[in-house]
Write the structure tokens for this entry.
Amino acid sequence: MKNLVIEGQSLEWLLTSATDAMLIIDHEGKIVLLNPALEKLFGYAPAALLGQTIEMLVPARLRHAHVGQRADFFSQPRPRAMGGGAELMALHRDGREFPVEVSLSPLQGAQAQPLVLATIHDITSRKAAEAALQESEARMRAIFETAVDAIITIDERGIMERLNPAAQALFGYSEAEAAGQNVSILMPAPHRARHDGYLEHYLDTGEKKIIGKGREVEGLRRDGTLFPMDLTVTEMKLGSRRMFTGMVRDITARKAAEQHNRALLQEISSANEELTNFAYVVSHDLKAPLRGIGSLADWLATDYAEHFNDEGREHMRLLINRVHRMGALIDGILQYSRVGRVKEAPLPVDLNKLLADVVDLQAAPAHIRVTVAPGLPVVVVEPTRIQQVFHNLVSNAIKYMDKADGRVEVACADAGADWRFAVSDNGPGIEARHFERIFQLFQTLASRDRVESTGVGLALVKKIVEMYHGQYGVESVIGQGSTFWFTLPKAASPAAAK
């Protein structure tokens, strides 16, 4: 069969030189001639397929049907070009299946023997590409159909082609109603009249006003209502066609929130102005008569001391103490009102030096020892604010001390992104049920006539620490003492500030 002659010509030279896999079979389906390209495609050694039936190159599950198809072809032989719809599965020698496309050409051998020439193409790569394309199209279709934002596609004339479900719900048009109409129907005047001009100007000059940029505009629903929206337009080319995709987001809720925020900011601004006025009144209109009362009380207590009995002297002492307490309360309120409102320039503060000054100003009684851990960090803060924090914590520890051998300790620990500061004492301790209450304004646990306190100190500590986005708290055991702690982000450091 090697020198098969068809119409007086040998085909062996043609098949051998062809780069496509080719073979010739007779009416019984036996392979009478094949080329090296086919042997390579199916993984067989030279001449191993000669005389074998074509069905050995077909998966077993498809062989019976293939025999029938072969018989039908030989009963009515006709040429069938590549791509004519015959996509089959082939069987490699190693047992794996792969898709092929086959073209058939009827031939006639000696003694009018019917033959067929088959050219076989491995289309594995094409099938993989088609599957990837289908998967990509399915993914894009899913995104288009399920996107929360409205998506609209238009051509270069501004005619709408597609609207996703979100766009249909937002504008009130079905895709069938909107398709074929100019996108300007979704715009209020005067943008509607100008839209085609914008598009023509871009196509002529390439100057972009919206394309490729985000912009806040107004949209027009089918029912005539207007709404604010974010619009982003992108351009794409499909062959010679230029298409535009608009991404639309309804920002009605955001605009309402912005308006609400503006109103709140205005209220806050007004409240701050009122607080400033209040602080001015407190500072000038209340402290002046209070100083007069204090001076008069001191004068009476000094010049008329011999005229008072024990009860009178106690009343004068209480009067003078309460005048001083009222002055301290006014000062505390002014300090509290200034936090976050009156700004100082943040500066590098060496806490070692600051704590030394704080402890020195306290003038602690001889039976109370205040110690500060060495090596405290340098932080960038408003100096007055951090001094107020440590002053209040240390002074409270001294003020409420009930031990003959009092100890107050200031320490610092590295807590990752924060510094954790603690002021500990061996005083009376605090019940856990009071932990939240003591950080509230004007709250004290001891009688004000027994321990001078305004109830502002810890509230001031809380407000300053929160201003720096730190945390605060207290740990305590009744009879053994308390530890007040707070954190300060390390971002408030010289390196971070620089």
In short: The radius of gyration is 46 Å. DSSP finds 13 helices and 19 strands in the chain. The first helix runs from residue 12 to 17.
